[in-house]
Amino acid sequence: MKTKSLITSLAILMAAFPESHAAVIAYDGFSTPGTYTDGTTILTPGSGGTGWVDHWTVSGTPTGQFAGTTSGLSYSNGGALTTTAGAAVDTSGTLNAQMLRHFSDGTPYSNGTTLYFSFLTERTSSVTASFLNFRLLGGTSDSTRAYFQNTTSGADSFSIYDQANAQLGSSFGSGLENTTFFVVLRLDLAAGATDTLSVWLNPALNAPLGIASASGTLNVDTNDISGIRLTAGNSVTGLFDEIRVGTSFADVSPIPEPATWALMAASLTALMVFGRRRSI
Question: Left, alpha or beta for 42 (phi > 0: left; psi -120 to 50: alpha)?
Answer without folding.
Answer: beta
